[in-house]
């Protein structure tokens, strides 16, 4: 019967265990004697599985026309969603091929990926998991306006001298000011996160430390210090940023206390 229906012996045994397919009587030699009723029932089960009906639902819909219609409508809705998702994925793949973008490029950034630095692409990949489409659209607008100095910062070696750091900070400060005045929520980015804000914030801080070297981070910090006081933004964003910094300082102080405590404990144990 397995060969006839294109399935396996183990599958038939599984249907027996689930009480979806009745066990046939055994002949005098011990072999199971499957009949036409078993074959018909197995074909019914396989047909419902082909359509995508779950095994757990088969028993409740097999002889109930109304339940079958409900199950089919639910299945049709699921298939529509799945097809739409597959179509979206196919469009993403086509864009990756068209623009020659790296495969890990965040959705929606494919057409500008080759103009972005590897570090920025990595950061946007994380951002795409933390923010909604509207916010990511704003981030794309920012990434689309990269200046020559952004690439110079991305290539800055960790041992860059003081003069180079100071010069680059001066160069990127105006663009940073424009960006923060047009998107002031960037001052406290966790405010717009869709999931666990603390976890997302820690992930961003950790990834920035991984993607950018100390000299690059230093240049960005210098530029920010230059422009913060003169930012033309609503007070609520400035206050949110100050609260964000204070919270980060408290967490860092607590982390250091825990580290010192562990070190002291290790010394005592030694």
What does this structure look like?
It is a single chain. The chain is an all-alpha fold. Among the domains are: 2-59, Multidrug-efflux Transporter Regulator, Chain: A, Domain 2, CATH 1.10.1660.10; 112-233, no CATH class. It has 12 helices and no strands. It has helices spanning 2-5, 9-17, 36-51, 55-61, 65-99, 118-130, 133-143, 148-154, 162-182, 197-211, 214-228, 235-269. The longest helix has 35 residues, at 65-99. It is elongated, with a radius of gyration of 30 Å. The model has no long low-confidence stretch (mean pLDDT 88).
Helix count equals: 12
Q: Strand portion, in percent?
A: under 5%
Q: Terminal Cα separation, in Å?
A: 71 Å
Category from helices, strands and their pairing: mainly alpha
Approximate shape: elongated
- Helical fraction equals 55-70%
Order of helices and strands: HHHHHHHHHHHH
What does the main sheet amount to? none
What Rg is obtained from the alpha carbons, in whole angstroms? 30 Å
Averaged pLDDT: 88
pLDDT < 50 runs, ≥5 residues = none
Could you tell me the number of beta strands?
Answer: 0
Organism: Brevibacterium marinum
Keywords: DNA-binding
Domain HTH merR-type: 1-64
GO molecular function: DNA binding; DNA-binding transcription factor activity
């Amino acid at each position: 019967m397995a060969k006839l229906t294109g399935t396996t012996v183990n599958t038939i045994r599984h249907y027996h265990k689930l009480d979806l397919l009745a066990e046939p009587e055994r002949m005098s030699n011990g072999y199971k004697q499957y009949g036409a009723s078993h074959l018909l029932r197995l074909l019914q089960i396989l047909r419902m599985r082909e359509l995508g009906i779950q095994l757990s639902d088969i028993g409740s819909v097999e002889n109930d026309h109304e339940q079958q219609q409900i199950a089919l409508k639910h299945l049709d809705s699921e298939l529509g969603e799945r097809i739409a998702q597959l179509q979206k994925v196919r469009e993403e793949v086509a864009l990756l091929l068209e623009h020659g973008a790296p495969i890990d490029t965040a959705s929606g950034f494919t057409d500008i990926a080759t103009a972005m630095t590897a570090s920025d692409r990595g950061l946007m990949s994380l951002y795409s998991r933390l923010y909604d489409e509207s916010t990511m659209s704003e981030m794309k607008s920012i990434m689309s306006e990269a200046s020559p100095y952004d690439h110079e910062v991305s290539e800055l070696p960790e041992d860059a001298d003081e003069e180079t750091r100071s010069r680059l900070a001066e160069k990127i400060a105006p663009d940073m000011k424009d960006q923060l005045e047009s998107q002031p929520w960037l001052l406290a980015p966790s405010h717009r996160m869709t999931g666990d804000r603390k976890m997302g914030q820690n992930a961003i801080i950790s990834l920035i430390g991984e993607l950018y070297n100390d000299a690059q981070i230093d240049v960005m910090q210098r530029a920010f210090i230059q422009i913060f006081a003169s930012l033309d933004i609503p007070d609520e964003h400035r206050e949110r940023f100050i609260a964000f910094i204070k919270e980060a300082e408290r967490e860092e102080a607590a982390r250091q206390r825990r580290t010192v405590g562990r070190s002291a404990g290790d010394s005592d144990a030694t």
